[in-house]
Automatic annotation (TrEMBL), chain A:
This protein's name: Outer membrane beta-barrel domain-containing protein
InterPro entries with a match to the protein in the record: OMP_myx_plus_Proteobacteria
Alphabetized UniProt keyword annotations: Signal
Signal peptide stretch: 1-23
Organism whose genome encodes this protein: Corallococcus exercitus
Amino acid sequence: MKARTLRVFAALSLSLTALGAAAQEDGVLDTAVVRNRLYKPAGHPELSLSVGLPVQTHLTAHYFFDVGLAYNLFDTFALEARAGYAASRHTGLARSISESFLDREDKRVTDELEDMWRMGLHGVVGARWAPIYGKISLVADIPVHFQTYLWAGGGLTNLKRQSVIQCTQVVDRAAGVCDNRTDVTDRGSATENYWVKESRVAPVVSAALGFRFFIKEQHGIRLELRDWIFKDSYRVNLLRDDWEAGKATGEPAGSPGLTHLVQFDLGYTFSF
Amino acid sequence: MRPFRSIALLVAAVPALAFAQGAAPAQPPAAPGPDATAPASPSPAEPPERQRTERAAPAVPQSSPEAAPARPSAPATPDEDDTGSTPSSQSTEAQAPAATAPADAPVLDSGEAPRTTDAQQQRLVNGAPLYNPNVNVHIVQKKRFADEGKHELVLYPAVVQVNGKFTNHAGTALHYVYHLQENFALQVGGQYNWYSDESDFNLELIDKVREQAQAASSLLLQWGAHAGVEVTPLYGKFAFFNNSLAQFSVVLSGGAGIGKTRHLIRPEVANEVEGQTYQVPARFGDTGNKFLGEVGGGFRVQFGESYAIRLEVRDLIYTARVDKVDGCNLADFEALEAARAANQPFDGLNLSGSCKVAKFDGVDPKTKKNYREDIILGRDLVAEPSSDVLNNVSFYAGFSVLF
C-alpha cells in the first residue's frame, strides 16, 4: 500500500514536472523581472507621425514633420525609416544681425557665421533599441506602460543657406534693407531678397533618446529628444567690396565642424 | 479495486496539473522584483492579435486550497498592472501580518479562497479591503521603499547648462531633502558654478559681426541657494533588458532663493609689455545678488533602501538688471574715465559709496595689465541699462543617500 502510494505520488510529481517544462518551452513561463509585458511589439510593423520643435534657437529655427515606418524585430529592437520635411526660418536675432551689419562698414573683412544651414526634405534609416520596459502609475490607479529607447541612424537631407552677412545689392544701408520691398518699414512687402544663397544635399546623422507610452493595443505616444547632425560649411575671409559687387569671395573654412539641431519630438505610433 | 484507485488519483491529478500550468507564471524562478501575481501568458495556439496583449485571467486553483502556496492573508494583486503604490497602502501594510508573505503570492479566486469575516482583514484601504485575498481590485502594488520621515542628501557633481545661447555654466550642487510625507518633501540646496562664461556663440558674434548680447542677457550666475518643496506625483518601475528591476519616481520641485551674478568685462587677452607677452585672464565684474526662482522635474531611481540616482532638469530663473558693475554706476564710470584720460588719481573723485574703485586702478604685478584700461569696458556695460529675465536651464545628474 505504501509502495503503491509512493509510486502514484511519484507519477504525479513527474507529471507536474513535465508539464512545467512543457510550459516553459511554450513560453508560458516568463522569467522577466517585470513579468508579462502587457505590450509585445515584436514582429509587428508600426507607423508613426511626429512633430519636432526646437529645444533651442540661435540663428535658425526648425519645425519637423516626419512620418516613420518601423518593424519590430524583437520586443527591444526595431528598424525604422523616417522621412519628412523641416520647415525653417531665420530667428529674430539673425534678422537683427543682417540689418545692422549692412551699416557696419568698419568691418571690411569677416567670416560667415556658423550653423546657418537649414534642413528641408530629409530621410533617415535607423535602429531603435529599447532595453527599458516599465510601468508608471498615473493618478494612483491608471498604470501606463512605457519603453525607453535609444535611436540612431543616418540618411540624406536637403540643405539651404541664406547669408546674413553677404548682401549682393544693398538697397538702403542705414535701414538695413537688402530686398525689393516697396515700403522701407514693411518687410513683408518684399518679393525677393539679395542675400547670398546656397543649397546642397548632405549626409545627416540622427540620434534620439525617447519614451514610448503604450495606449491600449495598437496606439502609442512617443516623446523624444532628437539631435540632427550634419557637417557645417561656410566661407571665411570675405571681402565686403567683393560681396557687395556681387562677386564670389573668400574660401571655404578649413574645419567648419558639425551642426546640431536638437529637437523635442512629439509623436503618435500605430502598431499593426 | 487497484484500478479504481489509480483512476481516482489520475482524476485528482488533472486539477493539480491545471494549477501547475496556471500558477507557474506567478512564481518564476529568481524573480527578485516585488511584482505580485502575473497572469498566464497566452498559449501559442491563440491568434496572434490575442497573443500580443493578452491579459489572461488570474490563476484559479481548482483543487483543494492547500495546493495553493499562498497564505490566505497575503496581499493579492491579480491584475498584471500592478504598478506603483499609494503611500497609505505602504504604511498600513507594514503593520499587517501579511507583510511577511512572499510578494509573488499567487491569486486566489473568489470562488475558492477562504472567506474572512475578521474585522482587521476587512479593513478598508483606499476603499477596498486590502488584506482580503479575495479582493482583486488593487492594480497598484506596495512600494518597496518608504520615503516618509526620511532625510535625503543629494550630491549633483555635474550640473550643466543646456540652454546656453549667450552663456555657459557648469557646476556642482548639494541638496538636502526631508520627506515630510510619502509624496511631499522640503528641500534646501546650494549650487556653485565653477565654470561660468560667455558662450562661443556670443564671442563669434563679437568677432564676426561686432554684435553681442545685452549685458542683462549674458549675466552669469556664480552661485545660488534656495529652499522649496518637492513632490513625487508618479511612481513606477522598470526593467532593464528584463534582468534587473528598478523603482523610480517622478519628482517635481519648486523654490526660491538668492544667487550671486557677475558679467564678463574683458575676455582673456595677451598683454605685451617691454617685448614680453603676458596672458591676462578674463575679468569679470560683480553685478550683485539677485532673487532666484527654481522649478524642475526629473527622475529618481532608487537602488536599495538607502541609495538613489537622480536625473533632473531645473530652471533657475533670475531677474537681471545691469546698472552697476563692481558697485560702480554710469556716473562713476564717467568720472573714472575722465580722470583716466587726464591721467589723474582717483582719490578725490566724487563716487558712489558702493563703487569699488580699487578694482579699476593700478597695475597687476603678474601680468602688467593696467586695470584703468577696463574702465571703458565697464562703462559700456552700464551705458544702456538693460534688464531681462533669464532662464538658466541645467541638467542635474547626481546620487543621493537616504537615512
